[in-house]
């Protein structure tokens, strides 16, 4: 509806930093789609906070709860970590990209793996923070069950027949080979693979800082400059 109003009034609304902070992701997908490129799949690590958590959890022998606390102290997470751990943030970002491809999906159609145990989803923020250690055995078991040479990544994926009105949007925790593109993501970086008909099996990869005030601010400033050029 907003897009239709903007088109009717020939106005511009830019939101590059909504997905990938300062990475040129939305604009790239938009231009590829408008140029007639057949995008067949988009897959990646979209959350800087969850990237930080699972990178550190995969590399170090630390309890999951301790890493979540470190991420919170470092400013990577929302005040209530459940905002990140629920997967809803990644789901919303995936939906934004789906809209760039003119898909009609709604948020309730996104299949999201919530990382929070059901019994902790409805408690207060203070109760949840006090119960963080309950997550330790859950994620330690997941980590231990991986194949050798694999790491955990929280991934969003848009796929299916993207020529139709609706695609398949999935957000879940996966185990990937350490030497894969997703497996080599470091720190709080994001990495998004864009698969296209003309690229075959080799995706276009956009990678870089997926969180942080400075990179996000530069992305917003970039949008302001682009709007200023049209004045």
What does this structure look like?
A hairpin with a 7-residue loop joins strand 5 and strand 6. The protein has one domain: Dihydrodipicolinate Reductase, domain 2, CATH 3.30.360.10. It starts with a helix and ends with a helix. It is α+β, with helices and mostly antiparallel strands and 231 residues long. Helix 3 (48-59) packs across helix 4 (64-73). It is globular and about 55 Å long. It has helices spanning 2-8, 26-34, 48-59, 64-73, 82-85, 88-100, 118-121, 125-130, 136-144, 213-229, and strands at residues 39-45, 111-112, 150-159, 168-177, 189-196, 204-209.
Summarize the SSE layout with pairings.
Blueprint (H helix, E strand, L loop, with lengths): L1 H7 L17 H9 L4 E7 L2 H12 L4 H10 L8 H4 L2 H13 L10 E2 L5 H4 L3 H6 L5 H9 L5 E10 L8 E10 L11 E8 L7 E6 L3 H17 L2
Parallel strand pairs: 2-4
Antiparallel strand pairs: 1-3, 1-5, 3-4, 5-6
Helix pairs in contact: 3-4
Defining key terms:
six-stranded mixed beta sheet, alpha+beta, 231 residues, Dihydrodipicolinate Reductase, domain 2
């Amino acid at each position: 509806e907003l897009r239709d109003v903007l088109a009717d009034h020939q106005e511009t609304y830019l939101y590059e930093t909504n997905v990938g902070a300062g990475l040129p992701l939305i604009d790239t997908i938009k231009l590829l789609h408008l140029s007639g490129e057949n995008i067949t799949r988009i897959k990646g690590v979209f959350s800087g906070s969850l990237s930080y958590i699972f990178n550190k959890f995969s590399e170090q022998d630390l309890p999951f709860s301790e890493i979540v606390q470190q991420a919170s102290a470092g400013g990577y997470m929302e005040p209530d970590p459940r905002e990140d751990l629920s997967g809803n943030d990644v789901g919303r970002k995936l939906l934004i990209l789906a809209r760039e491809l003119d898909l009609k999906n709604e948020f309730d159609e996104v299949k999201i793996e919530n990382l929070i145990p059901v019994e902790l989803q409805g408690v207060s923020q203070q109760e949840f923070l006090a119960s963080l250690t309950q997550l330790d055995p859950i994620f330690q078991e997941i980590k231990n069950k991986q194949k050798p040479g694999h790491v955990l990544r929280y991934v969003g994926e848009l796929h299916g027949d993207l020529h139709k009105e609706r695609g398949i949007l999935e957000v879940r925790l996966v185990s990937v080979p350490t030497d894969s593109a997703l497996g080599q993501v470091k720190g709080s970086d994001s990495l998004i693979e864009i698969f296209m008909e003309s690229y075959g099996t080799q995706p276009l990869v956009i990678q870089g800082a997926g969180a942080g005030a400075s990179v996000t601010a530069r992305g917003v400033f970039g949008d302001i400059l682009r709007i200023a050029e049209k004045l």
